[in-house]
Amino acid sequence: MTEFRADVLVVGGGLGGVAAALAAARNGAQVVLTEETTWLGGQLTTQLVPPDEHPWIEAFGSTASYRRLRDGIREYYRSGYPLRSASRSLAHLNPGAGRVGPLCHEPRAALAVIDAMLAPWQAAGQITVLRRHVPATAQVDGDRVTAMGFHDLETGGDVTVTARFVLDATEAGDVLPITGTEFVTGAESQADTGEPHAAATARPDNMQAVSVCFALSHHAGENHTIDKPDDYAAWRAVAPEWWHGPQFGWVAPHPHTLEPRRYVFTPNPDDDPTGIIADQSKDPGSDELWTFRRILARNHFRAGAFDSDITIVNWPMIDYLGGPIIGGTDEQNAAHTAAARAQSLSFLYWLQAEAPRPDGGSGWPGLRLRPDVTGTADGLAMRPYIRESRRIRGQYRIVEQDLAVAVRPDGAVSYHDSVGVGSYRIDLHPSTGGDNYIDVPAWPFQVPMRALVPERVRNVIAAGKNISTTHITNGCYRLHPVEWTVGEAAGHLAAFCVTRDTEPQQVTATPGLLAEVQNSMTGQGMELGWPNVTYY
């Protein structure tokens, strides 16, 4: 049995976990950071989801450390890639010229920058990173977690980490059931939350679809068609009654109106990447699938350097509706995860062999999976994109009435205990319970500290998508910059509690302590409030 001791244990190496570890170390804490896979970065890396960001991200609305991450990714391309001079000179270089956000990039770029951000702290012995470690057990004394046990997937051995504070930054809130921290899953009832878009009846198993993303390039005249999956016919027949046809097709419900929406697919358009508008408030851009989440635009680079763009398939056609991958038995969760991967492979085959083309033909056989981009043998993402986690029962629950434009015409609630900001529409994908999209405007919002702090357990802090939102408000608190902000706030709070020998519940209840930690946060580049901006 290998044992580690730390002030702060951060479980999960996604964006929230990395931000938490950096913030805790920056404020003097000894940190152990664990991650299930070989890559840190979560949404940006193992899940293949380029940043989905609000329109003001280049100027404000994130933490200083998140901006350092973004700056580092741009420098990764400027220093190592054969950029054209016009592209190299762009202050806001978007390597993929993707429309989803102004910084679409390959997962390995984020991985390299994250590793570099952690490196000096690792060299100093202040952060220890344990990759391929899965949380398995917990030692609990009353309302406190004293240690957690992990299974080392590489050696098969077991590891124990003793820590004063445990931060759950896992993608699905995995620490919560292990430690006995109270949590909820799925959809709450309207009687419970009072939310206009909540369901009439609570459905703990009704969660947003997961998606197993993959990367593609296109090589005209070549044939990269995969073998037809054995279960292809079953996936080809999936057609939810509200989908306007088969899920494998170019027509799907529009998230805002639920009316039929026809998508366009044009591999390798000869566009000017320096002229792409990546601002969803002005040009959503999501109708054109190839460019929406393109992560490498060949026309940014010296002629002949790349023979194809690279794009990420994270489209409605691969939203897995068959059931949640959390909350069931291990066997059920594994079966749904495997089914989601099977759906993505079948959709790839449909793209290569059967998808209707504008010229009247069928399929693009030149589409090639990119396992070199994903870091996996099969070319699919290491992990499913998990939109909705287990959520703590926190001291404060963020509800739709706090920020929905239709309910609050003058702006979102201003929280006295804000530890960060974010902005996104309330955007819920179709769900495992049979719901269509729920997508409504929301004001730029704050993150209340009380939403990170459990009602009962004294030394567990939520550090990712597992904060105390509802099924509805999770739809706007789940994006990249918000997850980073939540993680950074959790790490900062934990280190503050170590230094002051206090607990999160005491901080939220004591105005002087709360003001002290908020002042420390703002001094380190964490924005706690918004200027006068509107919704989109």
UniProtKB/TrEMBL annotation:
GO terms for biological process: NAD+ biosynthetic process. Transmembrane segments: none annotated. InterPro entries: FAD/NAD-bd_sf, NadB. One of its GO terms (molecular function) is L-aspartate oxidase activity. It comes from Nonomuraea zeae. This is FAD-dependent oxidoreductase. Signal peptide: none annotated. It comes from the Bacteria. It holds the Pfam family FAD_oxidored.
